[in-house]
Structure formats: C-alpha cells, structure tokens
Amino acid sequence: MADEPSEAHGSHQDETEEQEATQTAPEETEPDTFSKEYVQQLRAEAAEARTKAKRVETLEARLLEANIIQVATGVLADPWDLLLHAPRAELVDDGVLPDADKIKDAAQALVQRKPHLADRRPVGAVDQGARRETETVDLAGMLRERA
C-alpha cells in the first residue's frame, strides 16, 4: 500500500506534464502575427526616432544655454548660475524656445534673491588718480618755437 500512493502521485505528475506540453505546443506552432521584416523595420524606425529626439533635446539645451549666456551676461557674474537656480519652464516660452525677456527677468530676480551672484565688474572710469586732459602734440609748432 505504501507503493500505491507514490505510483498514483507519479502518474498524476505525468498527466500534468502532458497537459502542460499540449498547452504550450499550440502557442509555439502559431504563425507570427507580423512578419520578421516588418518587426525589424518598426524597430529601426523607433531607434531612428529615439536618436532624433535625443538630438533635438541636445540642440534645445544648447540654444537655451547660448541665450542665457547672451542675455544674462552683465547681470550675473556667471550666467550658468541661472541654469542652476531657475527652472527651465521660467526661461522658455511655450516650453520650447528661449525667451530673452523671461531670461532677463529671471536673472534680475535671482540677483535680488542672491546678490552675491551679481556681476561685480566696475562700470565707468576706474583709473587711479586725477586725470588731466591731454593736448594734442604739434611737433611742427614745437620746432618753430625753438628756432
């Protein structure tokens, strides 16, 4: 009797393996829904689209950086600080192109919040000592006076 349950269990196990084999067999023999060439073409198109999207993102970032450097120079000591402290959405119009007015406003707002980031280049005459106006030198006149 001890052998009967193990045999019964073994035959039951064989039946389940056969059922699983029959269930998986039709899936393997079904024809492909799409042809291999079509799937490869779709994958190639998707890869090309991803490459183009990455290129567009890179160019958008470079355009934004160039505009920030152009507009924020003179307001900020380092225009790159604006990229660190201002969200991108505040610097572009409609989420795509950089907006010079928004960039300038954001740079000025950043200087108000963090004055140590302001441009510290001196403006105007920064020479040392008094300055006198120079006269034009007339060499011919000097020779006539001494002759």
Shape: elongated
Estimate what percentage of residues fall within beta strands. Answer: under 5%
Low-confidence stretches: none
Strand order of the largest sheet: 1-2
* Rounded radius of gyration (Å): 39 Å
**Biggest sheet architecture:** 2 strands, antiparallel
Order of helices and strands: HHHEEHH
Structural class: mainly alpha
Describe the structure.
The radius of gyration is 39 Å and the shape is elongated. It starts with a helix and ends with a helix. With 147 residues, it is mainly α. It contains 5 helices and 2 strands, in the order αααββαα.
Short description:
The protein contains 5 helices and 2 strands; from the N terminus they run αααββαα. The chain has 147 residues and is mainly α.
Architecture blueprint of SSEs:
Blueprint: H1 3-29, H2 36-72, H3 80-85, E1 92-93, E2 97-98, H4 100-113, H5 139-146
Antiparallel strand pairs: 1-2
